[in-house]
């Protein structure tokens, strides 16, 4: 801008108008607008070329059909193809064509060489219809479509740039610059994101470490420092120092989760063994009770058998005693056990 100021002071004051552009880099909004236009330079150039071609087509039609009576925004001068085209470029983007300030109601085409009234009426109707279609298509194609295309290109670019800016701000706010893990990933494992980016993956600690290596004598490097210094010298190898998609918080959490899972597994197995032992104990208790009942019944039967054996012996002894006396064996009194007495 110093050269522009000198040119304005030494040559002409027009150069000072160029110095006004120095405000553009200092304004974020102006820079944003210029960036939007710069991104669509190719598309805008093609659209402008198509617009000029459309204006050239309408200029030729107006010069051939309505010479000398064609106006755009109350400006005439359609004497040649070039002047008619320049007229459309200057004023055709602002307003639709008109004829002698009467819009399309009074256009005059070359006279028809006939005296037939009906033919003249149809000719006038066709002239009016042609002028109407010409003005309608001109308004739609030039004033609406082309202008909307240019505006749409700029507006779409503004939207894309805004989304890109929001995405960058979101990455800066909710994503770790070192490991590229987002805030939600840390919150899911119970780690505070702010603590992670200030203590574990502090960006400035990496910067300070690089400055520390640059200022330290290479002969005094330790093994890890020597390895890191070699990686810092090569841009492609530098990323090996960065823990991308890695964090100690996830390892600690994974270890805690693994220990919890191990304890849960042990508890489940102990619980299953306890349930199995309870079932086995209940089954053995049932078997033992059944065996005890069988033992009681066996002892009862044994006692009854012994009692019957004693009764039989008593009966035999009494029969033996009654035999020598001459009595009938059947007349001997029965023991109490056989008679139902206890």
TrEMBL record:
UniProt topology in membrane: Multi-pass membrane protein
Membrane-crossing residue ranges in chain numbering: 6-24, 44-66, 136-158
Protein localization: Membrane
GO BP: any one term: calcium ion transport
GO MF terms held by the record: monoatomic ion channel activity
Disordered: region residues: 316-342
Swiss-Prot/TrEMBL keywords: Membrane, Transmembrane, Transmembrane helix
InterPro entries: Ion_trans_dom (IPR005821), Ryanodine_IP3_receptor (IPR015925)
UniProt KW Membrane keyword: yes
Domain Ion transport positions: 14-165
GO terms under cellular component: membrane
Signal sequence range: none
Name this protein carries in UniProt: Ion transport domain-containing protein
Organism of this sequence: Tribonema minus
